[in-house]
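In this supplementary section we document a worked example of the pipeline. Step one takes a protein sequence of length 296 as its only input; no multiple sequence alignment statistics are reported here. Step two produces a three-dimensional model, which step three serialises into structure tokens for compact storage. The input and output of this example are shown verbatim.
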Amino acid sequence: MSKIDDFKEYARRRIVERLREAKNGEDGEKEAEAKNGKIEPYNGDDAFYEGSDEEYREFLDGLDVDLNGAEPVSDGKKEDLGETINVKEMLGRVREKAGDIAGAAAAKVSEAAAAHTKFKVRGDDDDMTRFEKVEENISVGIDDMKTAIADSMNDSMQKMEGIDARIGGVSELFSETKQDVAKLKNAAAEIEKRVRELEIRVSGAAEENAAAMADIKHSLSVLSETADRINETVNGVSKLTDSVFDLKNAQQNTKTALSELQTAFARLKRKTVAGITIISIIGFIIIVLEVINLLA
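The serialised model returned by step three reads:
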């Protein structure tokens, strides 16, 4: 006998006990009510279980579901799993698994947030991030270029202003101008070198930022998969809850059927008593007629 059958038997015994108490009680109203077959109607709620909480918990602890032939396989046959599951334990494991998944999702959110700010928090020094270093290096390089160009322009302007004073020394002026041009070339070469260094630094920072964004996208993908798993778990719990409610409805239907059966028994009893009474009266009349016939 399964646990559900045990519970049905328990419900039947409870109903019979209540009817016997009403029948054998000293209260005249209860006795008359029992004789008339009156049973308290179901009021529409779920409060039909009249046992104690301890009895119901004991019932749940022992509510094992046989998995043999529970699921069909691809060829249409039933698979014999050779085991049973306990509904209460399975609910506990589902809740625990949902908590683990939620915790893992929170951890992934933290990892994604950390990956999003890697290019701001990654560096060799504690007081300056790598992004700040690149930004400062770019600023320093631009300032150096501005200074070098300004110095070269100032030197050239000073030489141009002294042309009139030194018009007699043309060869010397050409020599100094040639040196100024050489300085400008050197400054331009230095500027080009600085620009290349800045391009390399900016390119490296961009690659690091791209890697960080790739990490963020991966974390978001993992979060999406985790959310799908949570939804599947919640759907499973919802289906299991529906099954439990179906079980309660089956219990209520059993109670209703037993109540109707008891009412039918009460009606049959009344009809039987009435029939016996009528038969007794008819028998008495027959006996009287026989006596009259004998006397006549």
